[in-house]
Design a protein that fits this description.
It is a single chain. By secondary structure, the protein is mostly helical. The chain has nine helices and five strands. Strands 1-2-5 form a three-stranded antiparallel sheet. Strands 3-4 form a two-stranded antiparallel sheet. A hairpin with a 2-residue loop joins strand 3 and strand 4. Helix 1 packs parallel to helix 5 and helix 6 packs across helix 7. The longest helix has 20 residues. It is globular. The relative contact order is 0.12. About 3% of the residues have low confidence.
Amino acid sequence: MLKVMAHAGLRLGEALAMRMKHLDLDKLSYHVTESYKLHRFKKPKFGKTRIVDLPIFLVEELKDYRVHLKKESLKSGRGGHVDLLFSDPGEKSLWPYSQRKVQALVKKVCKGAGLEFRNPHDLRHTYATLLLMAHQSPGYVQKQLGHSSFSIIMDIYCHWIPGEGREGLEDALLGSESVVPNRVPNLHIFAYNKKRLQ
């Protein structure tokens, strides 16, 4: 589940609510239709469903995981039917893990590794940051994360967008071929009368 959060940018509640029927392994995607918290399934944040692209390596792991879940379902007498991807055996696999249980597990893992505690939601921030640093468009990142507006992406993550600052300014404005050292190109945004300015 944590791998899915880290590599698909899902919120914790969205990952807990994942169902097999919404996973399209052929199209490398997952249809986020609900979230889970306190024994309740509800619509995702802002009430909007979305389709999230999944990386190929994650899809391959999910294929193996699906086989594992079907075997476990057969062993337990449920006939091989799989609904929830991350059901809690302590809840007779009828409910997902609780958010509190996942947070406690992450805390335990961080402590065991000698790391400062990280909230599972930090995986979502890491996902967005990695996409932006890899030059994915902020619009695509917004779509993947399901944010309600583009400005949220810019407010939270714009400092991670590469190329910010002086380096590469000429390349960005003029194109890399047009930059010649020690020469200011004769480009104007608007026409003006040179004599009038002298």
